[in-house]
Amino acid sequence: MKKLVATVICMILGGCMSIYSQNLPINIAHRGACAYLPEHTLPAKALAYGMEADFIEQDVVLTKDNHALVIHDIHLDTVTDVANRFPGRARDDGRYYALDFTLAEIKTLKACERFEPASGTAVFAGRFPVWKSDFRLHTLQEEIELIQGLNKSTGKNIGIYPEIKDPAWHLEQGRDISKIVLQILEEYGYKTAQDNIYLQCFDFAELKRIKNELKCELKLIQLIEEDCDVAEVASYAVGIGPWIKQIITGLDKEGTPVISDLVARAHQHKLMVHPYTFRADALPEGVCTELLLDTLFNKIGVDGIFSDFPDVSRKFIRNQVKKP
Fold it and tell me: Hey, which residues are catalytic here?
């Protein structure tokens, strides 16, 4: 009876109960709906929300005046016109760092689809045209307010999935990015493991510090680029975020995916697995969307996915993932 009542309420409210509450894998909008609009812009996040992603990702770096900026890199020159607007402000390596600019300066920059700084060509040729329309960068607070505002106005409950970028580099520059991000999250009500948030980082030592020294109670995800000691990770995190190629290592002679034991080992230690990144326009040779998602969800049993195409992954999860 309780299940029936919950189902009826969900139908009445237009599906306000997130799909991940139904024991299905979670669908994480990677940098927003970045297959359709420039990554980490508020329009891309609003579109991801409209596509009913369960979580929306925020990569976070710091500005010169210690604002938490949502952008994938510590550099500005792959997604903005900083080189044209502020010539001469690059470091000795020729790169333009967010940490060298105030938020007010960054707000004057035009953002666009990711491109190669040397050539100016788009990384993904079929996506939103470079330098078209008017997009800007924004702060973590601005994005949280957008998502929380939409949660209030729609009755849905979409979560956030921030990543602390390059904490060791920030510390070398005299900035403790983790403390700043955690303070912002707490101010917006993200304090405990029950809150609708995952916090991720590639830095093993920093994620341990966040858990043990900074006493963070949020659900922590250890991002990884190569194999790791999953038993150790389980001592401070609730899950891992591996590269898809760490899970599906290739195809055999018959075209069948070759699967590693990483997910099985992680699940043995009660760790969730949220691999990155599903890109329907950049699939491995010989692999189609259907084969990739079916292998990840139905054969391997991953617990979620980072997706540039949150509408495509959402449709597969809701219609083709085998129910537990």
Answer: 30, 72
Predicted pLDDT of residue 22:
67
Domains of the chain (ranges; CATH) run 24-65+138-320 (3.20.20.190)
Identity at 27, one-letter amino acid code = N
Task: List C-alpha distances in Å: 103 to 13, 62, 93, 264.
Answer: 39, 9, 22, 44
The whole-number pLDDT of residue 23 equals 87
Strand 55-62 relative to strand 159-164: parallel, antiparallel, unpaired? Answer: parallel
**Spatial CA neighbour of 74 closest among 164, 179, 203:** 164
Which structure tokens are listed for 251?
């195809």
Q: Contact 55/29 with Cβ under 8 angstroms?
A: yes
Q: Output phi, psi for 111, to 5 deg.
A: -100, 155
pLDDT tens, residue by residue, 127-157: 999 999 999 999 999 999 999 999 999 999 9
Q: Where are the alpha helices (DSSP H) in 177-309?
A: 177-187, 204-212, 230-233, 244-247, 262-268, 289-294
- The Cα–Cα gap between 255 and 252 comes to 5
Could you count the other beta carbons within 10 Å of the beta carbon of residue 23? 8
Residue 4: strand, helix, or coil: helix
199's enclosing H/E stretch is strand 198-201
d(CA 115, CA 121): 5
What is the C-alpha to C-alpha distance for residues 227 and 229, in angstroms, rounded to an integer?
7
* Torsion angles phi and psi, residue 162, rounded to 5: -75, 150
Three-class SS string for 28-61?
Answer: EECCCCCCCCCCCCHHHHHHHHHCCCCEEEEEEE
Q: Residue 96 carries which side chain, given as an amino acid letter?
A: Y
**pTM for this structure?**
0.93
- What is the 8-class DSSP label of residue 254? T
CB 311 within 8 A of CB 48: no
